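Re: [help] complex structure
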Amino acid sequence: MTIIKTENLTKIYSDGKVEVVALRDVNLEIMQGEFVVVAGPSGSGKTTLLNQIGGLDKPTEGRVYLEGKDITQMKKDELAELRLRKIGFIFQTYNLIPVLTVSENVELPLVLLGIPERQRKEQVMEVLNLLDISELANKKPNEISGGQQQRVAIARAIITRPSIILADEPTAHLDSKTGGMLIDVMIKMNREKGITFIICSHDPQVIQKAGRLIRLRDGMIEDDKKIW
Amino acid sequence: MKKFSHSENLKKEDEIMFFLKFAWRNIWRNKRRTIITITAITFATMITIIMRGIQLGSYEYFIRTIAGDYSGYIQIQREGYKDDPSLRKTFIYSDEIKKTIESISDIIAYAPRLYADVMISSGENSYGGIIYGIDPEIELNFSNFHKKVKQGRFLNKDSSYEVILGYKLFENLKIKLGDEIVILAQGFDGALWDMKFKVVGVVKLGYTELDNSVIFMNLKDAQELLSAENRVSVIAILLPELGKIEKVRQKLLSELTQKELVALSWEDVMVELKQSIDLDNASGVLFLAFLIIIVAFGILNTISMSVVERFNEFGISLAIGFKNQKLVLIVFLEIIFIALIGILLGCLLGGIFNYYLIKNPIVLTGEFASAYEEFGFEPKFISSLQPRIFINTGLSILIVSIISSIIPLYRVYKLEPLKGIRFI
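Output below.
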């Protein structure tokens, strides 16, 4: 089943004088359960593509479909609802909320979904156990390591059982060992939970583990290869 | 209209509780900034409460003293008397009226009075004067006239053909205590009458106009002189507190059976006093408004900084599914927390100060004291603990805090996720 489809996706940034084409006629189809890595040099359009797929930005031209629905035509609140229910985000800087504990950070999307407290707590513990970070539940983000924070970010992304997780350079701030372990965790989530991952990265060890590798250059797909 | 089920309400409650916890922790992210802002709000609230307390306390004291002596808190008079205070507008002081007044439990005292313009002469000296026909026994518990006797003595219930004069009138007449004066007046029947009275006392009321003209005499003597048997100009009424005026006034209006009688508040009778209080009050409010506006800029600064430095976090929050409205709600709760802490502390400190001032009034000395005494007031600063001081101050500062946060809240409302994420 196709989960993401882009049609002639184009994004041009303009400051009134200079135009920069970040994406040019990108046509892409991603199936449910795929573990996709989008690679390419800086400025190739990786993050822009991810932002378009995640509904964080509107394309200049073209369409993005998520589970068959055109998200480029959606309003601000509809997009927020869509991100909450269907999409999980993982950023390169872990971006946890510093005043909330690990479990509260993970719990937050469930609060927004209106899940009752008891059920929330159960789901949070389940996810923290799955990611081997249950002992960190009551710690604040500044009390744990970068790798642990990124695991918490993964927990926050998967807690709502989204259809797809978008990760932008998730290992950029981690050492190679921690980064490798993190990718393994994501592969585990992909295999065990069937969650589709689209990861933007130029980290070789991430690229190495891709199930499908899409290479971007100058805003266009240079190569698209299914590996497993 | 959208109906919420019980479980939906619970979800909302649950979400609000989470956001409250979130907002509470947020305000302590930058402890120093929050403490400075709370201190500013506390200080503004406290100063406002102290100043309003002294202002309203003084007004209460002025009203209690002046209205108590002259108009009463409420005054019963015949319709039209206010604009034409002549004998023709007097009314019969009947038992029925007394019964009506006494049936209202909030009335603690009432005093019938008969006023009239007269001529007073002694030897070759003649002056215009104004009679205050009073019941001396009642006035002892009602007004402070007896405390303002400078020479001689006050009237008593047995006083007959005795008068007390304003000290300037007394000086102008060039008489001494025990002398007789003649009062010439046009009676209720239109005829001119004169009677002799013995001067038994001199009062200094503190108002030049009255000190030049006032003649206190027993009510029954005034009624006899003016051929106005059983008639009075007004009945002044005292209440335990100013706040009950309107309620009692309405009750009197509905229960007085004489259609020609009206019940006026001191504000209607002593228009000049009311205007001078209003003017002073307005200048005080204006000063405090400036103070609050300065604090508003402080709040605007704090909230703006706290919002801008979290733009990145807000962007991430929007990306994970927050709606802008919910982020606005969290920031709004932070503002409410900061404002409420400041307001409560300010109310507490201001209240303690006002209470202390009520128990230990500041006694004025020097020129200030003389000015107060000149007008018949005790030279002291007193305060008030009226709930409206706290409610109005608290609400004003809360509303100003919210208004001053509109711009930062609007910026959060309009924030796009990507702009937030990219914000450095």
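The first strand of chain A starts at residue 2 and ends at 14.
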